[in-house]
Write a structure and sequence with these properties.
Elements: E1 10-14, E2 24-29, E3 42-43, E4 55-58, E5 63-66, E6 71-72, E7 77-80, E8 90-94, E9 115-116, E10 121-122, E11 130-138, E12 142-149, E13 155-162, H1 173-176, E14 187-193, E15 196-206, E16 218-225, E17 234-235, E18 240-241, E19 251-252, E20 257-258, E21 267-268, E22 274-275, E23 284-285, E24 294-298, E25 306-307, E26 309-313, E27 336-337, E28 345-346, E29 354-355, E30 360-361, E31 369-370, E32 375-377, E33 380-383, E34 393-399, E35 403-404, E36 411-413, E37 418-420, E38 429-436, E39 454-463, E40 469-476, E41 481-488, E42 491-500, E43 506-513, E44 528-537, E45 547-549, E46 551-552, E47 561-562, E48 568-571, E49 576-579, E50 584-586, E51 597-599, E52 605-606, E53 613-614, E54 618-623, E55 626-631, E56 639-647, E57 653-660, E58 670-673, H2 679-687, E59 694-697, E60 699-705, E61 716-724, E62 732-733, E63 737-738, E64 741-742, E65 758-764, E66 775-783, E67 792-794, E68 808-815, E69 821-822, E70 827-831, E71 838-845, E72 852-854, E73 861-864, H3 868-912, H4 945-955
Parallel strand pairs: 66-68, 69-72
Antiparallel strand pairs: 1-2, 2-3, 4-5, 6-17, 7-16, 8-11, 9-10, 10-16, 11-15, 12-14, 12-16, 13-15, 18-19, 20-21, 22-23, 24-26, 25-27, 28-29, 30-31, 32-45, 33-44, 34-35, 34-38, 36-37, 37-44, 38-43, 39-42, 39-44, 40-41, 40-43, 46-47, 48-49, 50-51, 52-53, 54-55, 56-57, 57-60, 58-59, 60-61, 62-65, ...
Length: 974
């Protein structure tokens, strides 16, 4: 080229540092080949050299120079605070999820990404895993810091760093898994960086498998320290300015002023017709005033005990009034008598309500009174009148982008309720908070371990036209606010109760958001949440609204209340501690009386302290005259079931894992643990010696997400919930229903066995928005000798998640261990053949064998016996004798019959022959006839068979003779 390069034709840049830590400054042409004569390379500054904040390295002189007004510099760092578009160097990458076997028709994660929203960056709000990636090369050790909002623990949020070999840097779990933040509040996270290449990852992924919309993560003000140098200053973004040279940051413009890009000052708006919020890039025209620009308040009680409804403009006021079409501010209402004081307070004819002195009580309408003997005051708070905000409650408003709302209250008192305020936009979080420093149990139950320490109950309703949501949250020991329960959309007036199982300082928070979509407008003021009553029991700093019976000392002269041992109730007739009867459990919050001891369910028993009821793994059932005895100990202490896999609409594979503890007390409960959790929760639980985010109960459920297809390094266990934290009024029975819970045996294949199914009934009293009465569980034990002793757990085929409605869960546990104990009825005897004078007796189980353990099968026995040859010989002899006897009898009767026939024929012939001597009455025996014939009877009567046998017997006796009937008229014939 002919032209000589001038300064505008090139720019300076440093070479990479060599092994000695040196580098060179070289000139790089803007367009290669356009000019000639570039400056020669010169030795540069040291590799670790950097300028101070507010300065930049002027490469021509290689000296630090102050930034001009309207710009700023971090010196050795870079800052990203403007998110109108994705800054250079940042990329958003959605992890490709496996589609599995659920089909190819489900939507993919191609549309999931981090989205710029002006002042902040918003994450995806689905279960897709999306990473925000930025690579930076540091010449020396540095750090990265950023501000974030992370209110929803159903969305995983991790920050980690990789080197240029894609190897993850060593990080503590506290640096990797970020802590939850309160709704609308920003937190700052800082991590140290090593020299060299650092690839920064902000990664999110939902674990909520349902239709509930996730709350996204917000990022802003990402700042990286440790870069070698900055060769230029950054201009201030619109809405900010820096008025003096050498600034390290820009300042937002005040209200009703604005600024453009790189401004050194702000320009005021024409406030008569325009307005601008803090940090505005332009002025906006003031709209006409409407009903959305004012709100209603109740004034505090005056000296006359009167209050009235008033209306105030929402501040800062941006609308125009007094012009055509503008809505005027409504006039104040009539002065009305103030509502009474809340229970535990009194006014004593003054405008304000004061708490009753210690030891006294009031219902709010009467002066304070002392509790009578044998009673003690109850402590707590009961708010049902809302003339002023109570002293221990605070209200505020948080906007997603601007942190706090401008001079706005989150909630406003309204006489018989407190309601959500206007806010500055529809997606503001309207916050109401009450702080309880601790809990104090009544004296009589103060020594009972494991009981509830207090409970909070509130009555509320929501009226919405959009996707509003009311959150109820708690912060234990000022660690981190976690969501206890939430309600979406319109909800009719209802009550909710939460029980505190430990004594700690706690803050309860209600947050109402009209929509979770980004919005800078106020269009849904009619979407409102109302809280009518709030009551907290056993608050250590509470007031007394009544008295409670207590146990008195056994000494006659003492009238002081004394604590009762665990499992004892107060006998109101004697004011003494009385132990609950056997197999009952004590309801700690019940009125002191025998009714506080609730009986355990069928086939269940209570522990020594009467805190809970449980099964001892033994059960009996009588069928007819037979009694079946069951011992479920072989099933083991805890059974586990992992069903699935299931797939979300985005293709994420997940499993449901259930842990079930059938028998045993507190020491044998099932445990479900989350391996990804808020670190502040883990800290508070480790103080008590518990595992992080552990659910310990009779039955619990966890959601398991495998590592493959998620982008996370290990399988995730999350969303652990309790399905059965009590075994109190329920129990074990063969019936299909108990205490309103149906077993529904038709959900399983019917068993043809003679052994009935055994149903274990459980209930969790923890109410949710979808299960107001809590969850319940039925575990059906079925005898199946084809299974192992531990057996297999299964769920109904039409309810693969174990439940069809989310409130009642069903499990079938088929096992040989669920069969009854064996008895003598379950086997029978078999006799063996007689060999060599000995015979074996064997015992075998009756098939199919439907028993386990119990009576053992008797051993084989051998008995003496007669041989088969003897009986054959005896039988042959008897047979031969019988045959000879029969032949002899047959011959005799044949001969006898012939003789009788002969005599009969002669008699007939003689009767028909004409006699020569008339008048003969009879025939005599003729001379010369066989004398043997004289022995025959003349008159013959046919004898019976018995008579024939008798005759045969008498024939052989010579002294016997046959009788012959003779006619008396022939004496000579004799």
């Amino acid at each position: 080229p002919d032209s000589v390069c001038v300064q505008k034709d090139y720019y300076y840049q440093y070479t990479e540092c060599d092994s000695t830590g040196s580098r060179w400054r070289v000139a790089i042409p803007q367009t290669p080949g356009d000019c000639a004569g570039l400056p020669e390379p010169v030795r540069g500054t040291e590799c670790t050299f950097s300028c101070k904040a507010g300065e930049f390295l002027e490469m021509s002189a290689q000296q630090c120079t102050q930034c001009a007004a309207g710009s700023y510099s971090l010196g050795s760092g870079v800052r990203f605070d403007q998110w109108d578009s994705m800054p250079a160097g940042f990329s958003s990458l959605a992890t490709s999820l496996e589609s599995g076997s659920h089909g190819d028709g489900g939507p993919s994660c191609n549309s999931s990404s981090w989205l710029p929203q002006g002042n902040y960056l918003m994450s995806n709000r689905d279960e897709c895993t999306v990473s925000l990636i930025y690579a930076v090369h540091l010449k020396k050790q540095g750090s990265v810091s950023f501000e974030y909002q992370y209110p929803d623990n159903n969305l995983l949020f991790e920050f980690f760093i990789q080197n240029d070999q894609c190897q993850e840097m060593d990080q503590s779990s506290e640096a990797k898994w970020l802590k939850l933040t309160n709704h609308g509040e920003w937190a700052t996270h800082t991590v140290n960086l090593k020299s060299g290449t650092n690839i920064l990852y902000w990664r999110t992924g939902g674990v909520l498998m349902g239709s509930k919309v996730l709350k996204p993560v917000f990022l802003r003000n990402i700042q990286i320290e440790g870069v070698a140098y900055t060769s230029e200053c950054f201009p201030c973004k619109a809405g900010t300015f820096s008025s003096s040279p050498g600034s390290s940051a820009c300042v937002p413009c005040p209200r009703d002023t604005y600024s453009g890009h790189g401004a050194s000052s702000c320009t005021p708006c024409d406030t008569a017709t325009q307005y601008a919020g803090e940090g505005s890039a332009a002025c906006a025209d003031r709209p006409l005033c409407s009903k959305k620009d004012y709100f209603q308040i109740h004034t505090a009680c005056d000296q006359e005990g009167k209050t009235q409804v008033m209306y105030k403009w929402i501040e800062p006021k941006i609308c125009l009034e007094g012009v055509s079409g503008a809505e005027p501010l409504p006039p104040s209402g009539e002065r009305e008598p103030c509502p009474p004081c809340n229970p535990g307070f009194y006014n004593n004819d003054t405008p304000t309500c004061s708490p009753c002195p210690a030891g006294s009580f009031s219902d709010g309408t009467k002066p304070c009174s002392q509790c009578p003997a044998g009673t003690e005051p109850t402590l707590g708070y009961e708010y049902k009148w809302w003339n002023v905000l109570p002293a221990n409650m605070k209200t505020s408003c948080f906007n997603v982008g601007n942190s706090k709302c401008d001079n706005m209250n989150g909630w406003e008192v309204a006489g018989d309720h407190i309601r959500s305020g206007a806010g500055s936009s529809d997606n503001d979080y309207l916050i109401l908070n009450i702080h309880i420093p601790g809990f104090k149990l009544p004296t009589s139950v103060s020594s009972q371990s494991g009981t509830e320490f207090g409970r909070i109950t509130f009555e509320f309703e929501t009226v919405c036209t959009a996707d509003c949501e009311l959150y109820f949250m708690m912060d234990v020991n000022r660690k981190s606010t976690t969501v206890v329960e939430s309600w979406e959309g319109t909800k009719t007036r209802r009550s909710y109760t939460h029980v505190m199982a430990k004594n700690a300082s706690v803050s309860y928070t209600w947050a109402f958001q009209r929509t979770n979509q980004p919005s800078d407008l106020r269009k849904r003021l009619n979407d409102v949440s109302r809280i009518y009553t709030i009551s907290v029991s056993n608050a250590v700093d509470g007031v007394s609204s009544g008295c409670r019976a207590c146990a008195l000392s056994s000494q006659p002269s003492s009238s002081a209340c004394v604590p009762c041992p665990a499992g004892h109730y107060i006998n109101t007739s004697t004011s003494q501690c009385t132990e609950c009867p056997s197999n009952t459990h004590l309801v700690s919050h019940a009125t002191p009386s025998p009714d506080a001891c609730k009986p355990c369910g069928p086939a269940s028993r209570s522990d020594e302290d009467h805190r809970l009821c449980y099964s001892d793994c033994h059960f009996t059932h009588t069928v007819g005259n037979a009694t079946l005895t069951f011992d479920f100990t072989p099933l083991g202490s805890v059974g586990s079931l992992m069903n699935g896999p299931s797939f979300t609409s985005k293709g994420t594979k997940y499993f449901r894992q259930f842990n079930i503890s059938l028998c045993g007390g507190q020491s044998q409960l099932a445990v479900c643990t989350d391996n990804v959790t808020d670190l502040s929760i883990a800290d508070s639980q480790s103080e008590r010696g518990e595992a992080a985010n552990t659910v310990k109960t009779f039955i619990c459920q966890s959601t398991i997400i495998p590592a493959n297809g998620r982008g996370f390094h290990t399988a995730l266990s999350s969303q652990s919930i309790t399905l059965a934290d009590i075994f109190l009024v329920l129990g074990v029975t063969v019936e299909n229903s108990l205490d309103g819970i149906e077993a529904m045996p038709e959900q399983y294949t019917q068993s043809s066995k003679k052994v009935p199914d055994i149903n274990f009934f459980y209930r969790s009293l923890e109410a949710t928005s979808s299960c107001p009465s809590g969850r319940s569980t039925v575990v059906t034990l079925r005898c199946n000798p084809e299974k192992s002793t531990r057996g297999d757990l299964s769920v109904p085929s039409r309810c693969p998640a174990g439940t069809c409605d989310g409130c009642t869960f069903y499990f079938l546990w088929e096992s040989a261990g669920a069969c009854p104990t064996c008895t003598e009825r379950d086997y029978h005897q078999i006799e063996g053949a007689c060999k060599g004078g000995q015979q074996d007796l064997l015992y075998v189980w009756t098939e199919p064998k439907l028993c386990i353990g119990g009576a053992a099968l008797p051993r084989k026995r051998t008995l003496a016996c007669a041989g088969v040859e003897f009986w054959v010989q005896l039988g042959a002899g008897l047979g031969a004798f019988t045959a000879v006897l029969l032949v002899s009898l047959t011959c005799y009767f044949w001969k006898k019959n012939k003789r009788l026939e002969y005599k009969y024929s002669r008699l007939v012939m003689s009767a028909n022959k004409e006699c020569e001597m008339p008048g003969t009455d009879s025939c005599a025996v003729m001379e010369g006839e066989n004398e043997g014939d004289l022995e025959d009877e003349v008159v013959y009567t046919k004898p019976s068979l018995l008579g024939k046998l008798k005759a045969i017997a008498s024939k052989g006796n010579r002294e016997n003779f046959e009788h012959v009937q003779l006619n008396s008229s022939h004496p000579k014939a004799l």
